[in-house]
């Protein structure tokens, strides 16, 4: 039995659907839709602080898995290139796993997007 496969059998529906440009209540975090890891993947961007909460979209010198339901590697790479890497270079990235990174660092050293 593959535990990872069984984990997807009990997916829950979202209570709230977030869309590109939505703000998270009582914050200045804006939703950036970044499909690819999963179909509904998002990142949260704080423009004034130049911070990005990337979840499983992009990591320090890596990207998220694309073998999950609704995932697609080329879509993930396009999301990163078209929506994330265009942010200011000094934007700090807080990924869902691993160390902090930045747009500048990923532009220089991420082998999945260069």
Topology overview:
Blueprint: H1 3-7, E1 29-33, E2 42-46, E3 51-55, E4 58-59, E5 62-63, H2 73-84, E6 92-95, E7 101-102, H3 103-109
Parallel strand pairs: 3-6
Antiparallel strand pairs: 1-2, 2-3, 4-5, 6-7
CATH homologous superfamily heading of the domain at 31-109: Ribonuclease Z/Hydroxyacylglutathione hydrolase-like
Q: Report the count of strand segments.
A: 7
Strand order of the largest sheet: 1-2-3-6-7
Strand content: 15-25%
CATH class placement of the domain at 31-109? Alpha Beta
Cα separation of the termini: 37 Å
How many strands, which pairing sense, and closed or not: the largest β-sheet? 5 strands, mixed
> What structural class should be given to the helix and strand makeup?
alpha+beta
Task: Tell me the CATH architecture of the domain at 31-109.
Answer: 4-Layer Sandwich
CATH fold name of the domain at 31-109, please? Metallo-beta-lactamase, Chain A
Morphology: globular
Mean pLDDT: 91
- What is the string of helix and strand elements? HEEEEEHEEH
